[in-house]
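ASSEMBLY PREDICTION REQUEST
Request ID: AP-0331
Submitted by: J.K., bench scientist
Number of chains: two
Total residues: 796
Priority: normal
Notes: Please return the full assembly, not individual chains.
Input sequences:
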Amino acid sequence: MNYRFSRRMDALKSSAVRDILKLTQGKEIISFAGGLPAEELFPLEAVREATERVFAGGKHTLQYGLTEGYLPLREQLCERMTAKSMPVDPDQMLLTTGSQQAIDLIARVLTDPGDVVLVENPTYLACLQVFQLYGMRVIPVESDKDGMIVEAAEKLMKEHKPKLVYIVPTFGNPTGRVWSIERRKGLLELSRKYGVPIVEDDPYGDIRFDPKADYPTLFSLEGKADGGSVIYLGSFSKTVAPALRTGWAIGDRSVISMMAKAKQAADLHSSTLDQQTLDQLLRHFPLDDHIRRIATAYGSRMQQMQQLLRQQGWSDVSWVEPQGGMFIWVELPEGLDAEALLRAAVGKGVAFVPGASFFAAEPQRNTARMNFTYTEGERMKLGIERFSEAVNEFMARC
Amino acid sequence: MNYRFSRRMDALKSSAVRDILKLTQGKEIISFAGGLPAEELFPLEAVREATERVFAGGKHTLQYGLTEGYLPLREQLCERMTAKSMPVDPDQMLLTTGSQQAIDLIARVLTDPGDVVLVENPTYLACLQVFQLYGMRVIPVESDKDGMIVEAAEKLMKEHKPKLVYIVPTFGNPTGRVWSIERRKGLLELSRKYGVPIVEDDPYGDIRFDPKADYPTLFSLEGKADGGSVIYLGSFSKTVAPALRTGWAIGDRSVISMMAKAKQAADLHSSTLDQQTLDQLLRHFPLDDHIRRIATAYGSRMQQMQQLLRQQGWSDVSWVEPQGGMFIWVELPEGLDAEALLRAAVGKGVAFVPGASFFAAEPQRNTARMNFTYTEGERMKLGIERFSEAVNEFMARC
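STATUS: Completed
Returned structure:
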């Protein structure tokens, strides 16, 4: 039989990057490409102890669970959210298979094909895939190092009446940028004025290098879930471990309950072993201390990578020093195509993600996303040497 | 903000049954409603040991995984499938969050709004929800105790050119029916002739009361994944435990790789802790012996429920004795509305699922799905007494 696929799958751009990265399989490659956390920092022993406690609860722990997610974990997460000025009840929270699933469910319940979504420029690659699959028109809003430019967003809201705005305002992926408080308040105001919900995706917010820095979430500025215009997404993937695949969405209870209906059809519920494990972990493990340890380690790695890049003495390579998160967003010399560079870099044994994929419309091809969390020390040094060799060869050719 | 929801969510029928069953929360209710496995039979100790072995593998076990699923588990599952005359490679298999997610992904990659899907009459409730959400037209095919009537299916294929046929041919939900070999072969032939892929959902196939009984899957009759017309879905929810939320889809590699693309947008990947745990479980735990124990226990419970129902001496209540699975499908006296009966039954402290929800079109309202796996002994006896009280009161009124 020859299978014919749905039109929505045509919309899913095939990824040149994925094809190039496939070439790395089996090779000894130093990768700055993935958004992978540092494995050596995973709290394996605490996770192990947490599962022990789950199993001590008896056989009932292995039964089907609620679509909304394991209630004791939601209750604890609500307390954590409330302590961060995001007051919320378990009825206003849905547990998901990573926060990626929350993006999918939001698109499913709030948009129809042809609807417009506004995003930062550039923005998180995998949100673009979701929006494309739902047949949405993705329009990038002019953005700078302080976030979306509010006037540009307002103009597009008037013109296109978007159904959603999707943002990663704190340590964005790929840029690592942090929105200024003015931009946060500005977008929130627009959202209320034009009735456009904001999806605030915050997987990296806890990974701030300066523990005293304060970047209030848009959800906390809004101050309420019911009737509010912000749907906030959190995740344990960066703070505990990705294998436990647990994220959460909070927002107006009508949206959350509609997302739960959609999730019931999508997969009934996410892993309750994972959810119960995280519940026990939160009860017995000082997670906030652990997050500080990770953030400190990532801050050092970022500094190392930044220093290694500086040492190359390139005059026309630049980046904004990230204050948190997992990525340095590098602007390469004008005219340099980072996809071609990747091909050369992979030949030398190093990988990164060319920036073009993160743009919803016109891509800026001379950009690269460099992950600094997965490698360190001599390995990072060797990786940047290889990267720089590739860049220098390219610059010599230009 | 007032949220406006997508048109696809309008299509999702609100469930009267769910509303009635909500009334049971907090009450002492004996439930024959859920499709819940017997908790006391869960292999908790084996699962615990399996996670220990996973954690012994070191911190890498907590990292991000492949969208396609943990390769060693796919390899083992392929061996199990091949041993059951379903030869398949890891590239022809996708691990999912329960087999429910596989249904969602299949609809996503193979259908467009308005496309027709053929289903048994009655059929699995949650597949109807998925198909409705994707804007599909669901057309039930006349079916009897031996499965779909092939001539009726052919007539509808000619008329509607469906994109899919969805079936549960072995111990179907809700009816418990087993398709005859002729019907299996007949549908397979139609599927090839008209180019309509078959989704063979098989969560209960292993739960056969007679260990010597042989019900070949349509996938095994087809004998191949690539170029074949059957996409087969399996699940560990009934044989190991639902909390581990792991199912799998096998089929033509073009379909599987398209489903993986869609899954990447949907949730990146399912829980790898669960997948690694199941991998270790399969290596060290005699799963097939365990499945025999479950099937034997469920067979006894089915006999107990059947006997209790017979003892009521109803002349116009009937059912076909199931050969496996988890449900007895009861036909109540004509004119009796099982939804009204449920309301009365819940008042007496017992619940079941009225059959109407399982029909894609004209419902047969005098039907009830009774689960026999979750309760046993005195509790089952008390439950059937309460049920029978409700039925008798209704029959007296008619």
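REVIEWER COMMENTS: The longest strand of chain A covers residues 230-235.
SIGN-OFF: pending second reviewer
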